[in-house]
Design a protein that fits this description.
Blueprint: E1 3-14, H1 17-20, E2 27-41, E3 63-71
């Protein structure tokens, strides 16, 4: 079975120092973290990584986390 899966991706943005210096904050960062978000496969019946002949297992979970990181 051939397939392509995007396992982990993280996108983040840090605010420039010129915007946050006046607020006594050293760093402000926004981010989005995603796990198992995309799978490309011709096989459509069940998840190709299950390792089963009949698809009788729980599929791999997709997770999306959104966050804010502050450093004082």
């Amino acid at each position: 079975m051939s397939f392509l899966r995007m396992k982990d991706i993280e996108l983040g943005y840090s605010l420039p120092q010129s915007l946050i210096q006046k607020k006594r904050i050293k760093k402000v960062r926004f981010y989005v973290l995603a796990n198992n978000i995309l799978t490309f496969s011709k096989f459509k019946l069940w998840d190709v990584e299950l390792g089963t002949n009949n698809g009788m297992k729980y599929p791999v979970m997709k997770n999306i986390n959104v966050g804010l990181e502050l450093t004082f």
